[in-house]
Design brief:
single chain, 354 residues, 5-stranded antiparallel sheet, 5 strands, 60% helix, elongated
């Protein structure tokens, strides 16, 4: 220690032995309250057992599906090779659009699809949204905002919901996305996806998981083939219209030929009329043939562009039951109560020393 500078503070050397000795002092102090400590630990174990008995079990529905997109075949080998080295080449050709790469995972978790799924039927008297609100005890708290205190109910496939219904649907969606519903890709090199729904009602989890994939599948296929399908519909309408006109022209030409047999050969105007009708029929036949050819080509392209979503594993009853086990809850209560009581004693000791 420097005698010339009394303000210099001496910093003692770090000693593991001294640190252990200090901790042993704390432990001996805590163990001096043996009766209180035993009582607290017993209460903690009982509280853990009560929590395991009281906590409502949940049910998990799992579904695995695979997407077969014909356009992604050209780069699947390169993507698989790059995936082994941790690179993702889904966005560099091959698969594109809504079914490209990780877009599937984000689209399935969209609020639009979740809300549409919640508005499907749970049974003959209620929707999935009604059942979800009842199971998660949302009906009574939200009824305070409803006129007359009525329970909020959702119509089947409702489109024009009230502001209150939309707000409750939004809260349900947030709860579902916070951990009750998830999607993961089992392997980056493959196109397999694993979807899981964990809810407090077994039938609700099963229906929500299955219908969520149905909603997503319809949305994927509709979005993927929207442009080509609209072209097919336009060509089909045009082919039907030209076909109807061609049929009328055919009957009109046949009638004109029949009438020509009964006319005086001196009338040349009738022959010219038949020639005009024959010309119109030939032109319409040519246009009709080209339209039908383009229509069939568009239909073939539509079939090629339409992705296939194949369900590999479906959830079946009974679902996996998730419960807080006594073997986990009791030791957890024992440890937590012991730590809390120890902290309380040490804090109380320091206050008394100060």
């Amino acid at each position: 220690m420097n005698q010339d500078n009394p303000s210099y503070l001496y910093e003692p050397e770090f000693s593991v032995k001294k640190l252990i000795a200090d901790k042993l002092v704390y432990i001996k102090y805590i163990l001096s309250f043996k009766k209180s400590l035993c009582l607290v630990l017993l209460i903690g174990c009982l509280m853990g057992a009560f929590a395991a008995w009281r906590k409502r079990p949940t049910y998990t529905a799992r579904l695995t599906f695979v997407i077969d997109d014909s356009k992604s075949g050209t780069s699947s080998g390169l993507s698989a090779l790059a995936g082994q080295f941790g690179f993702n080449l889904d966005g560099l050709g091959g698969a594109s659009g809504v079914l490209a790469g990780d877009n599937v995972q984000e689209l399935i978790k969209s609020q639009k699809l979740i809300k549409a799924t919640l508005l499907t039927a749970y049974d003959s008297s209620q929707t999935l949204a009604d059942r979800y609100a009842d199971v998660n005890k949302l009906s009574k708290p939200w009824s305070e905002y409803s006129p007359g205190g009525k329970i909020i109910r959702f119509p089947l496939n409702g489109k024009n919901n009230t502001r209150l219904q939309d707000s409750l649907l939004h809260e349900m969606t947030i709860l579902i996305l916070s951990g009750e519903f998830g999607i993961a890709k089992t392997d980056k090199k493959l196109s397999f996806f694993d979807v899981s729904a964990t809810m407090k009602d077994e039938k609700l989890a099963l229906l929500f998981c299955n219908r969520m994939i149905k909603q997503a599948t319809d949305f994927f296929i509709y979005t993927k083939t929207k442009r080509i399908r609209s072209n097919v519909e336009r060509l089909q309408h045009r082919a039907d219209s030209i076909g109807a006109i061609l049929n009328r022209k055919t009957y009109s030409l046949s009638s004109a030929n029949q009438t020509l047999l009964d006319l005086n050969p001196a009338y040349t105007t009738a022959n010219a009329n038949i020639e005009v009708k024959e010309r119109d029929k030939i032109v319409l036949t040519t246009i009709f043939s080209e339209t039908v050819k383009n229509l069939e080509a568009s239909k073939a392209m539509l079939a090629q562009e339409t992705p296939t979503v194949q369900i590999v594993d479906e959830p079946e009853l009974p679902l996996t039951k998730n419960r807080l086990k006594y073997s986990i809850a009791i030791p957890a209560g024992f440890v937590i109560s012991g730590l809390l009581f120890s902290f309380y004693l040490l804090i109380f000791k320091r206050r008394n020393q100060n």
